[in-house]
Here is the input.
Amino acid sequence: MQLTAIIPLVGLAYLFHKTQWMPEILPYEWIAQGTEKGARLIRKLGINVHGEQFVRLAVEIAAAYATVKVLMPLRVIVSVWLTPWFARIFIVPFLGLFRRKKPVSTAPPPSNKP
Here is the structure.
């Protein structure tokens, strides 16, 4: 998954949980899909919630998932816009760790005398 999906997903799920508000005009298919994923994630992370709290948390994650899917065009634009910055800050220095260094020569420089 990419950063433009993970960061909003976590942020929106937290926002929906803390404010107890969720957008109401999200596609039903995505909410259903997100509820399955949310329930699986809650179990996988071992979060200890039961009954109504479990359902509420799963639906909040589902709403965040659906919202992130709705925001896909904006996420693509942000990804393209941030790519040069991300590469310059993270990728180029990382790749520099694997470049060969030129060997230092101890021989005297060649003379230009004929």
